[in-house]
Amino acid sequence: MKKRKIFRTPEERAAWVARGEELQRELQYWIERGKAELAARQEPASSP
């Protein structure tokens, strides 16, 4: 069973949510970057 995060103030919760959103944006950036690098590597190999 997962422990629930308990916040003392609404500001503490807002900061926690903002950090989570920032981490999601950063993760998405790295995923997109990795996909772009893979696509760039495959381009020259597929062209005759």
UniProtKB/TrEMBL annotation:
This is Uncharacterized protein. It comes from the Bacteria. It comes from Gaiella occulta.
